[in-house]
Every structure is written in C-alpha cells, then in structure tokens.
Amino acid sequence: MMKYSFLFIFLLLPLTVCAEWVLTPKTMVNGGVAILRWQGQVPMDVAVAHFDGESFFLDRDKDGLFALIGIDVLKAPGTYPVEMTGIDVLGGNHFHSMQITVEDADRKTDFLTLPAEMVSPKDPATLERIDRESAELKAVFSVDSGPYIGQLFTVPVSDPISSSFGTKRVLNGKPKSPHSGTDFRSPLGRLVRAPANGRVVYVADLHYTGKTVILDHGSGIFSLYAHLLTPLCQVGEELKIGQPLGKVGSTGRSTGAHLHWTVKLRGAKVDPMLLLARYGKERP
C-alpha cells in the first residue's frame, strides 16, 4: 500500500520533464530483460516506475537508482510504455515516459516423445496435486518482499546449456508452452550454487519439477531450481552468492540428470541468460 501512496504523492507534485533516464535496450524479444537507470547530473533520491500494470520503486546499487524490467516469454509483439516519476536530492521533481518495443524471438522447436502419463496425467489425485502445487507457486511468486538484495547475477552451475529458454516444445505430437527456463547438462550430484544473494522461500517435491528450491532476490525477482537430487537449504535461510542450495538430480518430469533454472521478474518469465547479459558478473 505504501508504494502506491508514494506514487500518488508524486503525481500531485509539479513535474519537470527530463531525459536523463536511460533504458537499455529499448527493443527486446519476448523473454528479454532491460535495465532502467537514472543518469542525471543531480542524483535521484527516490523514484517509482510503472510498467505493464505494475508500479515499483527503483533500487540502488553503486551506480545509483536502477530497475530491472522483464518481458514475459508469451508477451505479444508491440510497443509498451514505461513511466518514471521521481524526486532528486535537491527536491526537484521529474517525470518521463519511454517506449519498449517487443519483437518475437526466433526460437527453435523441440519434438519430444514421453510416456503419456508424464505429458497429460489423468489420475484425479495427480490432477488435484498439480492444481494445489500450482496455487502454492502462484502465492510464492506474488509476494513483494521489499528492495532488491541480489547484487550482480552469475550462473548456478558452469556446465553447458542443453535446452535454451523459450524453446517451443511439441510433446507426443501436441504443442505445449515454450520452455520456461534454461537447462544445463549437469551431472548427477553437481552442486547448484545461489547465483545471487537471496532468501529461500520455497522447498518442495513437486509433480512436474521434482525437488524444487525458490529464492527471492527482492524487488519481485525470483529464481527457481528444479529436478534436484537433494535440496541443501531450508525455507527462511539467507543465501549469499555462491552458497550451495542443492544437488543436480532427475526428479519430477525428467528423463535424465540436469538443472532447470527459471527466473521470474515481477511475474514475467524471462531468459536467465538475458538477465546475465544485462545485470550479470559474466556477460554471455
């Protein structure tokens, strides 16, 4: 409620149009990530951005105020506004609006054959479990825990990528949702490490993703690690970048050992590798 109160106050103040906001990039594919920064001569004290129905405070790092903006993998091509409102350290009021252009990514299609029950379960108990777990995940991802705590991201494992984010999938001849994360060809038992500082907010054994861990990095940014052999953390723990969170496995709907890494940015499923490209220690 507080963030909307601040936004309301900002909108009542005299506004000065400025062009010191920098958005990189302004054209993205669905699943992409952009970084918004204030680069004016006078430092910004506090600012709010509005995009895709969400209002959120900008966070602060060594370069000043910034926000990561994610484009969901299913976002339709088009042009979408980003609006920024802020107060600088001298009390000046600033308002600006930019456009993000979203283009369709040219991603490949994987044709997979799996046991029918893995693709379309019909057992009532299994369907009830899937619905229950889906509701749990939705509740976890809906929490706004406050400012970003993650710092720059890195990869959770250093193994090669086996399946890229957004790959279109046809399972047993039927089109399914695009791949929601990045898969790494990791051996059984490989340590999975926190790619950024985060709070452990979910540890469970799920029907589809098997033994799963979710980290909350603040500012609506979550990362999920699926098909683990063994989680090595508990809900409530604060992990620093590089700390082990689990071991690679093949639990849930999986045909072999690998790590599945999903990132959600204020509800948008985004490409973890594009997140690294915008706000990572390594730039793929």
Topology:
Elements: H1 2-12, E1 16-17, E2 21-24, E3 27-29, E4 33-38, E5 44-51, E6 54-57, E7 59-61, E8 64-70, E9 78-88, E10 93-103, E11 109-112, H2 116-119, H3 124-141, E12 161-163, E13 168-171, E14 174-176, E15 182-184, E16 191-193, E17 198-206, E18 210-216, E19 221-231, E20 238-239, E21 244-248, E22 259-265, E23 268-270, H4 272-279
Parallel strand pairs: 1-10, 3-10, 11-13
Antiparallel strand pairs: 2-4, 4-8, 5-6, 5-9, 7-8, 9-10, 12-15, 13-14, 15-22, 16-21, 17-18, 17-20, 18-19, 19-21, 19-22, 22-23
Can you walk through the features of this model?
The chain has 284 residues and is mainly beta. Helices cover 14% and strands 43% of the residues. The chain contains 4 helices and 23 strands. The protein has helices at 2-12, 116-119, 124-141, 272-279; strands at residues 16-17, 21-24, 27-29, 33-38, 44-51, 54-57, 59-61, 64-70, 78-88, 93-103, 109-112, 161-163, 168-171, 174-176, 182-184, 191-193, 198-206, 210-216, 221-231, 238-239, 244-248, 259-265, 268-270. Strands 12, 15, 16, 17, 18, 19, 20, 21, 22 and 23 form a 10-stranded antiparallel beta sheet that branches. Strands 1, 3, 5, 6, 9 and 10 form a 6-stranded mixed beta sheet that branches. The longest helix is centred in the middle third of the chain and has 18 residues, at 124-141. It is globular, with a radius of gyration of 20 Å.
